[in-house]
Amino acid sequence: MDSPIETTKKICDLISKTFGLRVFYITPSGKIIHESSNNQLINPLYENQKQNLFTQLNFYASKQYNFPLIKKSIFSEKYVLISVFDNQNFVGTVLMGPSLSYPISEERVNGIINDSRAFFSREKVVQYYKTVPIIKHDKLLNISTTAFCMKINFGKRPYLNKPSSHFF
How far apart are CA 10 and CA 94, in angstroms? Predict the structure, then answer.
């Protein structure tokens, strides 16, 4: 039987292959212990530093969420954050993305490049935006719910043990 970490890695791979998204599994200390890239590029505006992505998303590896959270970067990318628990112990976060809700116009890409002062990497940025998966917001909600229910949260979630008048 696989360990909870190995099970989560396999689920990350399945999500990546099924939905065409890059998926990271990150420990509460911020270490990336697994990445399913699905051959996607990382945004050149992050200078190939994943930590820059985390900073941009205001992502704190030690912060726990009881439900999937969708965050949008200033570069119009959407990411899904899902906390992972093992027997009520927080063991990390799965970060899925990027995706876009709709294709970004060349004018918008040029605006992003100008705002970021990334003139030196214009072609890389343009190419990057051509490769980001287009996923409508409602479908991204469905993907996040599916991932959440696929036992990424294989342990009991904390909110299930607290009295509450509503589920969500």
Answer: 12
